[in-house]
């Protein structure tokens, strides 16, 4: 094989290998974002009420009993069970082993209260999401992106957010509050003219302008009467009577919330004082998780490639392409028979490949 041809093969195949490593890296980034701040060996119960990744066990909790366990308990107490992944929930204490589990004890933390009184549960713990109350993924519905409301922490299909197809692009906003929560906490619209995503700011200003020209605008449904705002209060003085739908907020919007005593009392009364906590956001949680990240498979793979000689790289590429072809053939059988690929199937594939390995004569990398 000429050097030019060898370089061509190396370049073409290396791109494929790098693509695999990069996909693996992205998957690891996503996993660390959600799980990096979690401990897979120790139950989080002793940490109290915290934001954490949670799992609802449908094997242990029957008859619509809502409960959730931490990452470590999902491994050490509920392995092989039917688990519903809940992503993260704020201010939640691990339920594993309490009275919701019908006598089943936690293997990691024996001394636990009978019930966690401050835990809050919604339909997600039943595996149901959105105002349409459907599972995700929905076997009977079309694929649709889902967004999490930062207040109720339920997940919503984009088409059910009551935003008339005016939702901003993913990179144009930081957090979303669903239409139901915006109705409950109507005063938050006052901050939206400056702190919502651009498209929403334009629409909201039109609504507010129409409201201002009405002589009979009633404020009796307001969460707080704008004519009675205390001195020093920084809450914007707008009427929110005609605003509706979900709201998409830009980064840093929480810092604009007024922190006068009256407003703090309002947040506490409505049980949304967590909006003032800079560590409450999912973004802050994910950043903390990424800080715990160790060397990724991508980084290990790049180091391994960099340490190889020219011929060794070609050999590795040949082996990789061989493995990829065999794996595709193996998975094709599952696709043809419409069977689900299990973890055991993948392990079996690599076990068979390992057993078929034979000593291989390679081109010497040096001359005597």
From TrEMBL:
SUPFAM superfamilies listed in its UniProt record: FYVE/PHD zinc finger (SSF57903)
Gene3D superfamilies: Zinc/RING finger domain, C3HC4 (zinc finger) (3.30.40.10)
Name of the protein described by the UniProt record: Putative E3 ubiquitin-protein ligase UBR7
ZnF UBR-type: positions: 41-111
Recorded GO MF terms: ubiquitin protein ligase activity; zinc ion binding
GO cellular component, one term: cytoplasm
Any Pfam family matching the protein: zf-UBR
Domain UBR-type as annotated: residue spans: 41-111
PANTHER family on file: E3 UBIQUITIN-PROTEIN LIGASE UBR7 (PTHR13513), E3 UBIQUITIN-PROTEIN LIGASE UBR7-RELATED (PTHR13513:SF9)
Key words, A-Z: Metal-binding, Zinc, Zinc-finger
Organism per entry: Mycetomoellerius zeteki
The organism's taxonomic lineage, starting at the top: Eukaryota, Metazoa, Ecdysozoa, Arthropoda, Hexapoda
InterPro entries associated with the record: UBR7, UBR7-like_UBR-box, Znf_FYVE_PHD, Znf_RING/FYVE/PHD, Znf_UBR
Top-level taxonomic group: Eukaryota
